[in-house]
Amino acid sequence: MARITQLVLDILKPHHPPLPEFTRQLAELHAGLRVTAEVVEIDDRTATLSVLCEGENIDLEMITEAISDMGGSLHSIDKVQVINDNSKHG
Amino acid sequence: MRRKLGKRLHSLLRLSGTHGIVRRYAVVNGFDGALTMLGMLLGFYISADIQLLTVINACLGVSVALAVSGVSSAYISESAEQQQALEVLRGAMVSDMADSAHHRAARVAPVLVALANGLSPLLMGLLIMLPLWLAHLGLDLGVAPVEAALATALLLIFLLGVFLGRIRGSSLLLSGLLTLLIAGITSLVIFLLGAA
What we know:
The structure holds two protein chains of two kinds. By secondary structure, chain A is of the alpha+beta class.
């Protein structure tokens, strides 16, 4: 089975919830999920983030829903790492 | 389950920036309710030969009117504020934010603010009227029912002051005495107007 183990997301979010709360809520989606959020650009009402998610099997849909629920929007998926555990040819 | 709902409501209030407003409205309108009842009761106290049932009905009418006024005025103003804030955010996010907590907060927060604004004077009114009802049911309070209700009103006004002192982090006793002083001045004005 192919698993997503790393994602870099470009996200636009309102100032509320604040960055630590936003990041914590994302990390709480999966046990063992590591989330690192970095502010790329900030204005009066919004912030553009680069969010690195690392885990054993990341559910992208769940992350997208959580971002939307917190008022954010996913602009682009800038990097993906996928690991295939099956060895068809092995 | 209840804790989770409480946490969710708190989160929606924080998102809408109204968690402080709910507390402020509850205290301010609770104080309005208690002071209004104090005024009503003093008016009856200085009037002669008023039936207990008349006092109860008048106080109940005022409490209900304060509650309806509090709920409707706060809902209308707060929902307009929230919609405007959401529109500004939608413009900034270039999204309708239909599935977001911000959208839910803009609908839920006005209801919570309105309830806090309306129910606090009603609760104050009902508590102050408790001695009147007990006397009406035939319970001997040891003092006249209107006097007992007046004492309840003063106690609640003092406790509201104590609560405000706790929020401010200042002396609880001093804060309670300050609200009592306001009640005292109100009482004095009513007595002077009644005497005139």
